[in-house]
Design the sequence.
C-alpha cells in the first residue's frame, strides 16, 4: 500500500473519529436539556428498561447464531480449511472481520437505544417551550445515531482494509465484515420489527378500536410495549439495517476497486471510495449542524433542508476532491447519478405517500365506501408506485455503467469498470446516509415524545406540537426509505459482480463469463430466488399476526382482572411488563424462521445448481425484492397518512365510516412498512453476501 | 411437407372437427333439458341480453384496435415492407394469421356466452329434480365451451401450419396467429374482468352490507349486471384467455420444432406436437363424457375424477403414440414432467384455498379480530403460496431441459433440444386444457343458476343444491388456475427462446448468444419488465374501483327514487339496464390503458435497449408476473372460501364480527382473483409475442 493511499485511509479514520466526537457532543447537548416532570421520568424509565431488556435478550440469542457462524466461517472461508496451500491467517482475518461486523452492527443499535430513550423525554418536555426547541431535541437525538452508524461503518471498513493491506491482500475479508453486519441486522431488524408491530397493533386494536380510549392512554397495558417497540424496531433495527446497507455498498465498491487496482496497477480506485465516503460523512455532519427550524415552524422543511444541503455539499466536495486528487471524472459522474436518482426516487415516493397529493387523498375518499376499498385502492397505488423507483434504479445502473465503461477500453476491462461505476452509484446514493439515519431515528423519538406528553398529562397544546413533529417524521421517512431501497438495489448488482470476481479468482480461470437467462440452471435459480422475498415477508407478517393475537388476549385479561383499571382509578397501573415479555418472547421466536429460510434456501440452490443457479437466484431475488419492498413500504406509508388525513377532518373526519376504514388500512400497512418491507433490503443483501462467501464451495460441490 | 406429416396434421384437424361435433351434441343436450318457470325465463333473457349487448360493444371497440394492429402488421412484419427482397406473400400470410387469431379468440368467447346463458337456466330448474341432474346441465354447458376453445385452437394452428408449409415456410406466422389470439384475449379478459367485479362488488356492497338483503335479491338494481358479469368475465374472458395460452404454447413448440426439423432434417418434432395436442383433446373429450356425479352426490369429486381421468388418458395415449410412431421417449418424458408438475401445483393451490386445510381456517379465525387481520393473514398466506408453484415451475423447466438436451449432443444442438423439451412441458401441462375450460366455465354457470333459483323463488332446498355446486366450482377453479399460470410460465420461457431464434435467423448470424444478467442493458430491461405486471394489475384494480363507485351511486339513486323498490312491492322492478350500461361503459373505458401500457412499454424498452434489453424485460416480466398472479389468484381464492367457511357457521357464523371481516376480505379478493390475477397470464404472453414479432425491428433501430 503506498503512502498516499495510507494517508487517505487514515484521514477517513480521522473523519470517522470526528463523527464520534460530534455524536458525543450531540449526546451531551441532548442530555443537558431540562427534564423535570416526575411522571414522564417514571414512564421514560419504564420504556428504557423495557427496551434494554429486549435488546439484551435479543443480543444474547443472536450471539449463539453468530458464534456458530463464526466457527463455520473459520472452517470454510475463504476456502475450506483442508484445501491444500490455504493459509490459516486468511481464516483468522476473515473470522475476525465477521465478528467485528456483528459487533459494530450490535453497537449501532445499542447506542441508538441509549440516546433515543433519553431524547424522547427531553423532546416531550421541550415541547412545552415551543415546537422549535422540541424539534431540536428530537432531531439531535436522532443525529447521535446517524453519526454513530456512519462513523462506525467507515471506521470498521477502514480498519479491515488496513489489516488486509498489511496481512493478506485478500479483499474478500471485507465481504466477511459486511456479512457480519448484515447477518446481525437481518435478525435485529426482523426481531425489532415484529416486536414493534405486535405492540402497536395490539394497543390500537383493544385501546382505540374496542374501548375507544385515546392513543398512548396509560391505562392501556400495551402502551409501554408500544413505546419500547418504537425504540427497538424503528431505532435499533433501522440503525443496524442502514449500517449494513452502508457497509455493503462500500465493501462492494472496495472489492471491485481492489480488483481493478490489481489489473491496472493503481490504487486510485480504492482511494476514491474512501475519499467519497469520508466526504459524505462530513457533508452529513454539516447538514446536521444546520438542520433547525426556521420561523415558519415547519419541521418537514427543516428536515428536507438538511437533506438537500447534505446532497449539495457532497456533490461539491467530491467534485473538488476529484479535481485536486486527479480522480476520474467519469466515476464522479457515476456517484452523482446515484445521488440524483436517489433524490428522484425520494420525490416519487413522496408523491405516493404525502397527503398533499392525489393518491393519499383518493384512498381517503375511497375509504368512505368501507375498508375493502381502502385496501384495494391502497394496494393499487402501492403497485403503481414501484414503477418510477424501479425505472430510476434501472436507468441509474445503466447510466453509471455507460459512463464508466470507457475507462476500461484500453485495457479490455470495460465491463469491470462499468460495474465499478454501478457500485459507485450505490455509494453516491448512500453518501448522505448519515443524514438519512438522523431523520429516520428522529421519527420514533418524537413518536415516543408524543406518547410521553399524553401519558405525562402535558396538555393538548403540547400533544399537538409533538403530533406535528411526528407527522413530519412520517413524511420524511417515506423519502429516506426510497433512498435505502434504491441503494440496496444498486449495491446488490455490484455484489453480484463481486460474486463473479470471487468465483473466477477462486477457480484461477474464467469459470463464469455470464449468467445467461436462457440457461435453464440460471433460470431455475431466478424463479426460486424471486419467491424468497415473498415468503420471507409472509413469515414476518405471520409472526406479527400470531404474536399480536397473544398480546390482545393478555390485554383483555388485564382489563378483566385488574379492578379499577378500565375506569382509570387513581394509583391503579396495568402490568406493563407482561405485555413487554409477550412481545419479546414472541419476536425472538418468530424472527428465526424467516432469516434462516432465506439463508438456507440460498445454500440449497447453490448445492443444486452451483454458481450459475446462484447468479440467477440473486437476480430473481433482487428483482422481486425491490418490487415487494417498494410496494409494501409505499402502500404502508400511504395508508398511515390516509388515516391521518381523515383524522385531520377530511372525508368525514374522526369517528366516521371513512375513519374506521382508514384505521383498518393503517393496521394492515403497519407490518407492511415497518416489519416486512424494510427487512427485505437486508434479506437481499444477506443472501448476496452468503452467495459471494460460499462461491468457492459451490464451485467444488454442486449437482449440476 | 411429407405425407406422414400431412396425414398427422389432417388427423389433428379431424379431431378438432370431432370436438366441434361433440360440443354441438352437448349443446343440443343442454338445450333439450326442460325449462318451464316463467320468471326464470324472464330473468334469464335479461341476463342473455345484457351479456350479448356488452359483448357486441366490446367487440366493436376491440375491432378498431385489431384493425390498426392488422395494418401495422402488414406494413412491418415479418420485416418492414421496404426492406429489400421481402416477399409480399409473407406479409399477407402474417396478417391473415393475425386476423384469424383474433376471430377465433372472439368466437370462443361468443360461443361460451351463448351456451352459458342457456345452461344457467337449465341448471337452476334441474336442481328441483336433484343435484346430479343439475350438475350435469352445468358441467355439460361448460364443456361446450371447453371443446369449442380447444377444438378451435387446434383447428387454427393446424390450418396456419398447412398454409405456411404450402406457401412461405416462415413459421413466424404462427406467432402472428398467437398474437391475434392473445391480443384479443388481453382486452377481452381485462374488460370482462372489470365488468364482472364492478357489478359483483357494488351489488354486495349496497345489497348485503348496507341493506342486509340476500345475495341475488331481485330488488337489487345491480343483480342482473352481476349475473351478466359472471358470463362476460368468467365465461367469455376466461375462454379467450385459455384459448390464447393454449395457442401460445402450441405455437412456441411448433416454432422450435420447425427450427430443429430444419437443422436435423426431420419432421418428427412437428408431428409430435400435433399428435400430442390432438391426443390431449381426445382425452379431454373422454374425460368430459365420464364426468358425472356418483351416489355420494359430491360435485367436487365428480369434477376431479374427470380431471384425473383426462390426465391419465393423456399419459397413456401419448405413450402408445410415442411407441407406435417411434418418437423420442425423452420428449415424451418432458411432456409428462409438465403434466405432473401441473398436478402438483394444482394440489398445493388447493391446500392454500380449500377450507379443509389450515390457511383458510386460520384466516377465518384471524377475522375474529377484525378485517385488518383478515387482510394481513390472507396476504401472508398468499405470499407463502407462491413458493411451491414457483419451485414447481423452476424444477419442471430444469428437468424437461435436462431430459431432452442430450438429443442434440451429436448435432451440437443441446440447448435447442433442451428448450424444445421445455416447450413440450408446457404443452403437456396444457394438454388437459379442454377439461380445465369445462371446469372453469361450469363455475359461473352454476353461480348464475344459484342467482336464478333465488330470483325465481325456487325455494331453500334448490338454492342449497346450487350453492353446493357453486362451492365445488370455486375449489376446482383454484386448482385449474394453478395449471394455467404454470403453463404460462413454461410457455413464456419457450417464447423467450423462440425470440432468440427469430432474432438470429433474422440477422442471418448469431447476434444473441445469451442474455447476460450482468450486462447492464439486460439488467435494465429486467428491472423495468418486473414492474410491468404490478402496474398492469394496479390499473385494472383502479378501473374496478372507479367503476364500482359510479355504480354504487346509481344503486343508491334507484333505491331513493323508485318508490316501493326497497320494500319489494309487487310489480316494482329496478332499472337493471342502467347498471349494465355503467358496467359496460366503464369496463370499455378502463381496459384500454392497462393493455396499451404493457404493449407500449415493451416497444419503448426495445427501442432504448434493443433485443438485449428485451430479453431482460421478458425475464423480469415472467418472474414478477408469476409471483404477482399466483399471489393474487391464491389470496383471492383463499378469502372467498374463508368467507364461505365463516358463513357455514364457523368462527361465529353469519352476522358475526368475523363474518363482516370475511366479507371485506372477499371484496378485496374479488378483483385480485377475477380481474388482475388471471389477466397477468395474458399480459405476459402478449408482451412476449410483441417482442418476438418486433425482434427484427429492434435489431434495426435501438439506442444501445
Sequence:
Amino acid at each position: 500500500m503506498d503512502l498516499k493511499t495510507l494517508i487517505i485511509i487514515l484521514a477517513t479514520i480521522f473523519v470517522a473519529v470526528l463523527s464520534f466526537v460530534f455524536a458525543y457532543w450531540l449526546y451531551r447537548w441532548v442530555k443537558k436539556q431540562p427534564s423535570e416532570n416526575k411522571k414522564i421520568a417514571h414512564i421514560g424509565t419504564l420504556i428504557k428498561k423495557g427496551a434494554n431488556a429486549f435488546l439484551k435478550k435479543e443480543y444474547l440469542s443472536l450471539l449463539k447464531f453468530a458464534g456458530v457462524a463464526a466457527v463455520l466461517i473459520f472452517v470454510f472461508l475463504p476456502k475450506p480449511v483442508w484445501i491444500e496451500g490455504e493459509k490459516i491467517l486468511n481464516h483468522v482475518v476473515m473470522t475476525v472481520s465477521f465478528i467485528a461486523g456483528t459487533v459494530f452492527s450490535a453497537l449501532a443499535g445499542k447506542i441508538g437505544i441509549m440516546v433515543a430513550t433519553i431524547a424522547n423525554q427531553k423532546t416531550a418536555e421541550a415541547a412545552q417551550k415551543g415546537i422549535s426547541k422540541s424539534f431540536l431535541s428530537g432531531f439531535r437525538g436522532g443525529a447521535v445515531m446517524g453519526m454513530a452508524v456512519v462513523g462506525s461503518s467507515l471506521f470498521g471498513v477502514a480498519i479491515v482494509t488496513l489489516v488486509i493491506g498489511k496481512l493478506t491482500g485478500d479483499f474478500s475479508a471485507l465481504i466477511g465484515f459486511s456479512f457480519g453486519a448484515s447477518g446481525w441486522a437481518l435478525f435485529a431488524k426482523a426481531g425489532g420489527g415484529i416486536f414493534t408491530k405486535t405492540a402497536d397493533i395490539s394497543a390500537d386494536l383493544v385501546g382505540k378500536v374496542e374501548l375507544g380510549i385515546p392513543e398512548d392512554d396509560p391505562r392501556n397495558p400495551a402502551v409501554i410495549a408500544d413505546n419500547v417497540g418504537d425504540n427497538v424496531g424503528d431505532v435499533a433495527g433501522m440503525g443496524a439495517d442502514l449500517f449494513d446497507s452502508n457497509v455493503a455498498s462500500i465493501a462492494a465498491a472496495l472489492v471491485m476497486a481492489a480488483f481493478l487496482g490489481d489489473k491496472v496497477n493503481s490504487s486510485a480506485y480504492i482511494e476514491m471510495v474512501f475519499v467519497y465516503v469520508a466526504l459524505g460523512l462530513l457533508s452529513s455532519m454539516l447538514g446536521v449542524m444546520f438542520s433547525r427550524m426556521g420561523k415558519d415552524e415547519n419541521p418537514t422543511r427543516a428536515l428536507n433542508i438538511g437533506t438537500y444541503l447534505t446532497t449539495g455539499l457532497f456533490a461539491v466536495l467530491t467534485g473538488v476532491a476529484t479535481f485536486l486528487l486527479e480522480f476520474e471524472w467519469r466515476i464522479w459522474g457515476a456517484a452523482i447519478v446515484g445521488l440524483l436518482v436517489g433524490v428522484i426516487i425520494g420525490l416519487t415516493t413522496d408523491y405516493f405517500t404525502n397527503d398533499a397529493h392525489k393518491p393519499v387523498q383518493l384512498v381517503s375518499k375511497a375509504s368512505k365506501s368501507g375498508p375493502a376499498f381502502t385496501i384495494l385502492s391502497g394496494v393499487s397505488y402501492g403497485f403503481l408506485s414501484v414503477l418510477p423507483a424501479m425505472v430510476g434504479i434501472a436507468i441509474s445502473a445503466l447510466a453509471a455503467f455507460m459512463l464508466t465503461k470507457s475507462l476500461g477500453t484500453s485495457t479490455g476491462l470495460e465491463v469491470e469498470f462499468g460495474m465499478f461505476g454501478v457500485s459507485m452509484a450505490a455509494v453516491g446514493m448512500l453518501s448522505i446516509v448519515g443524514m438519512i439515519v438522523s431523520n429516520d431515528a428522529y421519527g420514533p423519538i418524537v413518536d415516543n415524545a408524543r406518547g410521553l406528553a399524553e401519558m405525562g398529562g402535558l396538555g393538548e397544546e403540547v400533544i399537538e406540537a409533538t403530533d406535528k413533529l411526528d407527522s413530519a417524521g412520517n413524511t420524511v421517512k417515506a423519502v429516506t426509505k426510497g433512498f435505502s431501497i434504491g441503494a440496496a438495489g444498486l449495491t446488490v448488482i455490484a455484489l453480484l459482480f463481486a460474486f463473479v470476481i470471487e468465483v473466477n479468482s477462486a477457480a484461477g480461470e474464467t469459470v463464469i463469463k455470464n449468467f445467461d437467462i436462457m440457461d435453464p440452471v440460471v433460470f431455475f435459480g431466478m424463479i426460486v430466488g424471486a419467491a424468497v422475498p415473498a415468503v420471507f415477508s409472509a413469515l414476518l407478517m405471520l409472526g406479527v399476526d400470531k404474536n399480536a393475537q397473544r398480546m390482545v388476549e393478555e390485554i383483555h385479561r388485564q382489563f378483566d382482572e385488574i379492578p379499577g383499571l378500565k375506569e382509570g382509578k387513581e394509583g391503579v397501573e396495568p402490568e406493563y411488563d407482561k405485555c413487554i415479555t409477550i412481545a419479546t418472547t414472541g419476536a425472538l421466536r418468530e424472527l428465526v424462521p424467516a432469516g434462516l429460510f432465506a439463508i438456507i434456501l440460498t445454500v440449497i440452490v447453490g448445492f443444486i445448481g452451483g454458481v450459475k443457479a446462484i447468479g440467477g437466484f440473486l437476480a430473481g431475488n433482487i428483482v422481486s425484492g425491490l418490487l415487494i419492498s417498494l410496494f409494501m413500504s409505499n402502500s404502508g406509508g400511504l395508508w398511515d397518512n390516509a388515516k391521518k388525513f381523515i383524522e385531520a377532518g377530511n372525508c368525514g373526519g374522526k369517528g366516521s365510516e371513512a375513519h374506521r376504514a382508514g384505521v383498518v388500512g393503517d393496521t394492515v400497512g403497519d407490518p407492511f412498512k415497518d416489519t416486512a418491507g424494510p427487512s427485505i433490503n437486508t434479506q437481499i443483501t444477506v443472501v448476496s453476501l452468503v452467495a459471494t462467501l460460499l462461491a468457492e464451495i459451490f464451485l467444488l460441490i454442486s449437482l449440476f
